[in-house]
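Hey team,

Filing this mostly as a record. A colleague (T.K.) asked me to run one chain through the structure pipeline before their review meeting, and I want the input and output archived in the tracker in case anyone asks later how it was produced. No errors, nothing strange. Just documentation.

Input sequence:
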Amino acid sequence: MTLATGRPKDTTPRHAKAAVAHALRNASYEILPFKSTEEKVLAHVPQDVALTVTTTEAKGLGPTIALTTALSGRGYQVAPHLAARLVRDQSHLTDIVHELRDSGVDQVFCVGGDAAEPVGAFPDALTLLRGIRETGHHFTSVGIGGYPEGHGLISDELIERALEAKAPYATHVITQLCFDAATTVRWARTAHARGVRLPVRVGIPGAVGRQKLIRVSAGLGLGQSARFLKKQQNMLWRFFLPGGYSPDKLIEKLTPAFAQDTNSLAGFHVFTFNDLDSTEAWRQAWLARLS
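Output structure:
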């Protein structure tokens, strides 16, 4: 059915739109620990937007922890990505937890990391989560990763079992980027049916242009960039379309799922690639549209 103007009638349930508006209003942003990042956050990101700071093998955990504590001191809610394969041992982990506590940081996001070999006792996110629990940690928010399109090195069954094993240590799940809404929703339903009822923040791209993506990739370092490119081939060709990639259609296709109780979709996690000014302007435009 169409309106007199020929435009298709919007049949999206009102409560689904409200849920998406809430998800965008409370979206979290993922940022990269570059020298200019703190200045860009202060200039363009409201303090009510939660942040996560990535970790790269090339730079190690140091820049991630430093930016996390700096932004926390500025009033932001920030979670560092703690890459298990970059943590040496329980003593090193305890030092990290204490440093974050002393800086007022009460959130973390735990990942295995992309290092080819672990530097010490933690080969994956599950062992790191167990180590964090042993510290008697103070964290009120502990995120873990979800993989709607699977993992290149681990079978789908094993990665889903790992999610089930990690869930008791966590407060929420953040998915990797997936450009197919149906795949994300199908994965969320499967996780929900398997007993993982943690709220899921869906990873979506920010308003990122091609030139920005090229600069970010170069800034990661040659080895890290090569792995990034290999892992994100599906994403990259979309970004390199004329004008770059807009996440609008992805959000539109995800909207109905936010009204369903067969999954745990609860929010958005925006991969900004540090293009913070355009991403925040895009988010505000969506909120105005949904108001």
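Quick notes for T.K.: The chain has one domain: 18-37+48-290. The radius of gyration is 19 Å.
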